[in-house]
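Late entry, written up from scratch paper. The run itself happened at the end of the previous shift, but nothing got recorded in the book at the time, so transcribing now.
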Amino acid sequence: MGYRVPLLRGLKEPYTISHQLRKVESLSGLWKQVLLLILLSALVFGVSAFFGIGSEQVSRSLTELSRNEYELYKLFFGAGQVIWGILYAILVIFVPSLFFWTLVDVEYKKLISIQLIVLLILLTEKAINIPVFLFLGINTESSIFSFGIIAQAAAFPALLIYTFSAITLFKIWTVVLQYKYLKVVSERSPRFLIFVLLGTHLFFVIVSALLSSIHLEKLI
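Output as recorded:
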């Protein structure tokens, strides 16, 4: 009988769960957790799309669309967001796990378990942002959880605003949590782990900023 990683406890008790994860020889229920979180991601992205979050670009040109064209756009936008929610979850779970696996000498399934907890944090951020964006009438670049508002106040160029808006308190939480887990389950030095984590997250921040700067929603 393998060890089933308690994801919610993994958020609150990283020290305890990381030491249990280090000792276990096999994991159970991992793929059910993966499937569950992928479906949860699709749901969260779908709800966000239902409320029109992220569709600001087309809303500005609403008067230029007929009612049928607008309804068709909403349908494609919603479907696109659900598909993106599935792909997003897969990318968050498997890509960093594969990258870490090549560097830190830890079993791939254990790294997937850590990334499931990371995904849980990111989906929590996405879910919390739905009412925040709706009630405050703001977008991702102006999120109260990101550094984008500081970049806007400093009148930085657009690309820098997108870059800073991709750095949020929740993402910093994921870096800290990853470090705590990897420090226990890996034999690598803390300095090496910090270098790998900061490099990985910097890469994803730059990619996210570039995708935002080209307004990917226009392609959906």
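The mean pLDDT is 88.
(Scratch paper discarded after transcription.)
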